[in-house]
């Protein structure tokens, strides 16, 4: 091992040294689109109350409650269709080109918001946002997994949720202090910035090798790792290239690769990975965190909290970022299983506390002395979920799927995620009417508890392991 490599591995710390600085830059550039997507997701919380009020910026006045639920949930429908579109383009045109294409629907979203004057235009805007969300949720983790070194794969993978949460907070803040149209004009620029920056980074070496473009793959790997022409670096480059070539040696050639089908899930490791992935994304959405983000301001208003709803949303968004940043720090230092299980259980406790406050209030118990509980509980839940439960879903999913079926398997899991997300977001207000806000919090709490148990029983540890080692663990039911 060279002295350069010892400086980052020997002490057990993970620092962006000269050798991998371009790898960090590539991950950050790729996640600018996550930041942009976060602003479209966060847009709903501050502006939905405006759209249903007498001050609505739409020419026909305020939207109805039914129209409001469609505005919230149409993103998920757009994402369902976009998942298969971007899953196909990822194999046909590559990870990089497909990721660049996700900027176009986001440009369309902000154009519709800025210049649209009817609720139908907002429906189109949310469908476009969903189309982009499908691509970003599928392609950013995929791109990061395929360019990252094993030792920092978790750190780079957790940047996805961090940037997504930063974007959400940006929308919360801008929605509280800027006008409806000015917010759209400013945020219109983010996908453009992404296009300008990310276009200079290379395609993933794994994809290029599977397309028999070995020379291009070598150039990509050399760029991402910062390898020079020194003997030590050339030896490291050859060693890593040999490993990648061996990894795809059992796959079909490039003409057959494009016709991936469900038959490719015949191996036990592939079937098991897909089933685990489907359950993970279901638990991710049924935990309620995405619904809570969409309705943050409304939840605080309905819960009787003394804090201004939009300010409460900003506080929660800031705490979410702190949690996401914490995830980037610990994800490659602690066992993934331990972090996921612990954060799931703590999130369950926070949601249970919020539900209990709501139940006491519904029973006309004087809770004025503890009206801080909704803000504190939800802030705690979002923080702790952002440390482990939310980001690790996508880190683990991208790691456990075998390379041959990563695109199709990721598409299926992401489509299922958006299906569950649509049902949760669309019918969350209905469930609040049926069982109360407190009942919803208790259901979400039970789901978080189930998520921790599921991880403990069925999912292998992936930290620091190569993709081949993870597949071996899946095949042999190795959990530790």
From TrEMBL:
Which segments of the protein form a coiled coil according to its record? none
Assigned GO CC terms: plasma membrane
Q: What is its main location?
A: membrane
Name the Gene3D superfamilies for this protein: MFS general substrate transporter like domains
A Pfam family found in this protein is Sugar_tr
Q: Which domain of life is it from?
A: Eukaryota
| UniProt entry tagged with the keyword Transmembrane helix | yes
Query: How is this protein situated with respect to the membrane?
Result: Multi-pass membrane protein
**One MF term in the entry's GO annotations:** sugar transmembrane transporter activity
Cite the Major facilitator superfamily (MFS) profile domain residue spans from the record. 22-463
Q: Which UniProt keywords apply?
A: Cell membrane, Membrane, Sugar transport, Transmembrane, Transmembrane helix, Transport
Acyltransferase as a keyword of this entry, yes or no, is: no
Localization, per the record, is: Cell membrane
Q: Where are the transmembrane segments?
A: 23-48, 68-90, 97-117, 123-144, 156-178, 184-201, 273-293, 313-331, 338-360, 372-396, 408-428, 434-459
Classification via PANTHER family = AT22075P-RELATED, PTHR48021
Q: What is this protein called?
A: Major facilitator superfamily (MFS) profile domain-containing protein
């Amino acid at each position: 091992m060279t002295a350069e490599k010892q400086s980052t591995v020997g002490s057990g710390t993970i620092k962006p040294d000269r050798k991998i600085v371009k790898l960090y830059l590539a991950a950050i550039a790729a996640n600018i689109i996550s930041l942009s997507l976060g602003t479209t997701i966060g847009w709903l919380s501050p502006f939905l109350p405006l759209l249903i009020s007498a001050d609505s910026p739409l020419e026909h006045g305020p939207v109805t409650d039914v129209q409001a639920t469609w505005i919230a949930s149409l993103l998920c429908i757009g994402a369902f269709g976009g998942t298969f579109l971007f899953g196909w383009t990822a194999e046909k045109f590559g990870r990089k080109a497909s990721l660049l294409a996700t900027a176009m629907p986001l440009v369309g979203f902000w154009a519709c918001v800025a210049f649209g004057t009817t609720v139908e235009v907002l429906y189109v805007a949310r469908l476009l946002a969903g189309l982009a969300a499908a691509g970003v949720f599928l392609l950013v983790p995929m791109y990061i997994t395929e360019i990252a070194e094993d030792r920092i794969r978790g750190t780079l993978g957790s940047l996805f949720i961090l940037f997504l949460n930063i974007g959400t907070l940006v929308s919360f803040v801008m929605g509280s202090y800027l006008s409806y149209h000015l917010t759209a004009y400013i945020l219109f620029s983010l996908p453009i910035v992404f296009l300008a920056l990310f276009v200079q980074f290379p395609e993933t070496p794994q994809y290029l090798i599977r397309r028999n473009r070995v020379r291009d793959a070598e150039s990509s790997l050399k760029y991402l790792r910062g390898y020079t022409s020194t003997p030590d670096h050339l030896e490291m480059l050859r060693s890593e290239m040999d490993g990648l070539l061996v990894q795809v040696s059992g796959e079909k050639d490039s003409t057959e690769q494009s016709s991936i089908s469900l038959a490719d899930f015949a191996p036990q490791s592939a079937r098991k990975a897909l089933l685990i992935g489907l359950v993970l994304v279901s638990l991710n959405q049924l935990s309620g965190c995405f619904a809570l983000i969409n309705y943050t301001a409304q939840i605080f208003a309905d819960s009787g909290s003394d804090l201004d709803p939009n300010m409460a949303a900003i506080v929660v968004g800031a705490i979410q970022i702190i949690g996401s940043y914490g995830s980037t720090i610990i994800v490659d230092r602690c066992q993934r299983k331990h972090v996921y299980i612990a954060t799931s259980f703590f999130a369950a406790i926070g949601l249970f506390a919020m539900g209990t406050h709501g139940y006491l209030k519904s029973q006309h118990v004087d809770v004025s002395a503890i009206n801080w509980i909704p803000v504190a509980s939800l802030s705690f839940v979002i923080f702790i979920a952002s440390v482990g439960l939310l980001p690790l879903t996508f880190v683990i999913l991208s790691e456990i799927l075998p390379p041959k079926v990563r695109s199709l398997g990721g598409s299926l899991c992401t489509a299922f995620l958006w299906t569950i997300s649509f049902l949760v977001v669309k019918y969350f207000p209905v469930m609040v009417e049926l069982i109360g806000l407190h009942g919803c919090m208790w259901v979400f709490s039970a789901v978080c508890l189930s998520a921790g148990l599921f991880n403990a029983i069925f999912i292998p540890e992936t930290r620091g392991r190569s993709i081949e080692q993870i597949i071996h663990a899946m095949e042999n039911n190795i959990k530790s």
